[in-house]
UniProtKB/TrEMBL annotation:
Organism in which the protein naturally occurs: Duganella aceris
One Pfam entry name: GST_N_2
Protein name, UniProt field: Glutathione S-transferase
Xref: InterPro entries: Glutathione-S-Trfase_C_sf, Glutathione_S-Trfase_N, GST_Omega/HSP26, Thioredoxin-like_sf
GST N-terminal domain boundaries: 1-82
PANTHER family cross-referenced by the UniProt entry: GLUTATHIONE S-TRANSFERASE OMEGA, PTHR43968
CDD domains in UniProt: GST_C_6 (cd03205), GST_N_3 (cd03049)
Length: 206
């Protein structure tokens, strides 16, 4: 299999964590792919028409995208504890957490694009809306922090961990830990996992 990959994408990181946790990392060849919002990548579009990463290409040439689909597919390839519970409340809880964390991460990507503009180009109402949505999401996750620590480690945990790490990576000025201490304590345990250490975002990589 081959994976269109970046060392800085929080959505790619979800896939990489699942690969490390399941022992499947060696089965994937990583292809460094740039997926800038305003510049479609023709090489990437061969495997994902909308030019987004991650995109996984199976050995028979079948493409899979995006991170929820790829992670669930990878979860079928190993015999260990599953990242996607098979059925019932545990499944819906994991999927809901993944949806919230992925949605918040998508907002952060848009927020970062807006913050990178000159002050004259920025839309204050957009900046305010992004902040309101992220704060609401963080407050919701803070209420779940104790349960996150209790519930094992599934795709919901992976997604929330990657979200919080992306806040550290691109929004360090927000100092999110000051307002969400229980979530910060949970994230410390996430960040200490070998899979998280191995997949830290890295501006130094090409």
């Amino acid at each position: 299999m081959k994976l269109h990959w970046s060392p800085r994408s929080p959505f790619v990181r979800k896939v990489m964590i699942v690969l490390h946790e399941t022992g499947l990392d060696a089965s994937v060849t990583r292809i460094r792919s740039v997926a800038a919002m305003a510049t479609p990548n023709p090489g990437l579009m061969v495997d994902n028409p909308i030019s987004q990463i991650p995109a996984l290409v199976l050995d028979d040439g079948t493409p899979l995208y995006d991170s929820p689909v790829i992670c669930e597919y990878l979860d079928t390839l190993h015999s260990g504890a599953k990242f996607f519970p098979a059925a019932g409340p545990a499944r819906w809880l994991a999927l809901r957490r993944q949806a919230l964390a992925d949605g918040m991460t998508a907002i952060l990507l848009l927020w970062r694009q807006e913050r990178m503009k000159t002050e004259a180009q920025q839309l204050p109402e957009w900046l305010a809306a992004f902040a309101v949505k992220i704060n609401a999401g963080m407050a919701s996750l803070e209420l779940e922090a104790e349960a996150l620590a209790r519930d094992g480690f599934d795709i919901g945990h992976v997604s929330v961990g990657c979200l919080l790490s992306y806040l550290d990576y691109r929004f360090a000025d927000l100092d999110w830990r000051a307002g969400y201490p229980q979530l910060a304590a949970w994230h410390a345990s996430f960040a200490a996992r070998a899979s998280a250490v191995a997949t830290m975002p890295d501006d130094a990589q090409a």
